[in-house]
Amino acid sequence: MKKSNILVVVILALSAVLFVSGVVKKIRHSRVKQQQRKMLAVIPKGTANMWWDTVRLGAQAAAEKGNADMVWTGPEMETDREKQIQAVDDMLVKNVDAVVLGPNDFNALARSVDKIKEKGIPCIIIDSPVNSEKYDAFAGTDNYRGGADAARRLGAVLNGRGTIILTHFVQNSASTEERARGFKETLKAEFPEMKLVAEQYTLGTVEDARQKTTDMLTKIGNVDGMFAVNHPASVGAYKALQTSGRCGKIKYVGFDSDPVLLEGIERGEVEALIVQNPYEIGYRGVELALQMLNGGKLERNNNVPSMIVDAKNLDEMKKRFPSALGL
Predict the structure, then answer these.
(1) How far apart are CA 264 and CA 55, in angstroms?
(2) Which of 46, 61, 185, 220 measures 20 to 30 Å from 52, CA to CA?
(3) Is 31 exposed, middle or buried (0-12, 13-18, 19+ CB in 10 A)?
(4) Cβ pair 169, 233 in contact under 8 A
(5) What is 143-275's CATH number, 3.55.40.20, 3.30.1330.60, 3.40.50.2300, 3.40.50.12650?
(6) What is the H or E stretch that residue 14 is in?
(7) Which residues contact 79 (CB under 8 A, 6 or more apart)?
(8) Rounded to whole angstroms, how far apart are CA atoms 111 and 102?
(9) What is the per-residue pLDDT across 48-60, written as a single tens digit (0 to 9) for each?
(10) How far, in Å, CA of 75 to CA of 96, rounded?
(11) Where in the chain do CATH 3.40.50.2300 domains reside?
C-alpha cells in the first residue's frame, strides 16, 4: 500500500474514533442531564375542584422553574380517602424523588405520610395538616386566623349581636375544622351577644351544602349571619340563600372564591370572602420539595396569607390576584 493511502486510512480511522467518542460523550451527557431532573408527585385532596386546579398551576410553574418533572395525581372527590391513599402507594412504587401531599383526611392519611418517610423520600404537606410528625415541611393558609377573620367581619357588620349558622365541610378535614374552630372561638371570646344556633357537616359537594344550609334556614327562622368554611360549602350555602329568598337579609361570609360568589359581592348578597392563594400554595409546596432535594434547610411551617375580599376592594383584587379568585 502506498504511503499516501496508508495516511488516508489512518486519518479516516482517527476521524471515526473521534466521532464515536463524541457521540458517546453526548449520550452520557444527555443521560446525566436526564438523571439530574427530579420527579415530583403532587397529590391533591381532589382533582375535580377548581381550587385544586389553581394549586396545580402553581405547582407546575415551580417544577418548571426548578427543572423538574411533575406528576399530578389523586382522587376526583375530596371525600375519597382510599383513592388518595392508593395514589400515594402508586407513587412510592414509581420511586419518585419527593411527594407533595394535600391530605384529605387528618387521620386516614397519617400512615401514608409515615410510609413516605420510611422510604426516605421528602414529604411536603400542603393546605391541610395530617396526624403525623413525619413530614418535612408544611405550606398552607393560617386556617384558624381565616376563621377568626370571618367572625370579626360578621361581628362588625352585625354590631356584635345576632344569631349565626355555620356550614361545615366533611368531618376530619383538618383545614376546614381549624377554620370553624377559629370562627367559633372568636365569636365566643369577642362577641358574646352573637350566638351560634346551628351548624351542619356536609358530604363535600355543593348540592349537599345547599341542602344542609336550607335545612338550617328552615329550622331556624330568625338568622342574622352565616359562615361557610370552604369552596363547595360556600357556593352551596349561597345557593341556599338564593333559593330561600333571603339574600341580603342574612349577612353572609364565605371561605374561598368562585365567580358565582364574586357576583354575589357585586349584588350585595355576599358580605365578604376569606380568600386563600391556591396558586402560591402549590408553588410553595413544590419549591420546598426542590429545596430539600438540593440540600437546603426548610422552615417547618410556611404560612401563605389569606385575604379578605369585599365590595370595596373587589375590582383591585381581580386585577392583582385573579388566580386566587378563580378567574
Answers:
(1) 24
(2) 185
(3) exposed
(4) yes
(5) 3.40.50.2300
(6) helix 3-36
(7) 104, 170, 203, 204
(8) 14
(9) 888 899 899 999 9
(10) 18
(11) 38-140+278-304, 143-275
Q: Where is pLDDT greater, at 25 or 163?
A: 163
**Helices assigned H by DSSP within 227-313:** 231-244, 259-266, 278-293
Q: What is the pLDDT of residues 175-202, one digit of tens each?
A: 899 999 999 999 999 999 999 999 999 9
Distance (Å, whole) CA 121 – CA 260: 40
Which one, of 77, 148, 80, lies nearest residue 109 by Cα?
80
Residue 224 reports pLDDT greater than 60: yes
State whether residue 137 is helix, strand or coil.
strand
Q: Residues 304, 140: contact at Cβ < 8 Å?
A: yes
User: Looking at the domain that runs over 38-140+278-304, which CATH code has it been given?
Assistant: 3.40.50.2300
pTM equals: 0.74
Quote the cell numbers at residue 69.
418533572
pLDDT, position 10: 45
Mean residue pLDDT across the chain: 90
Query: Burial, 293: exposed, middle or buried (Cβ in 10 Å; 0-12, 13-18, 19+)?
Result: middle
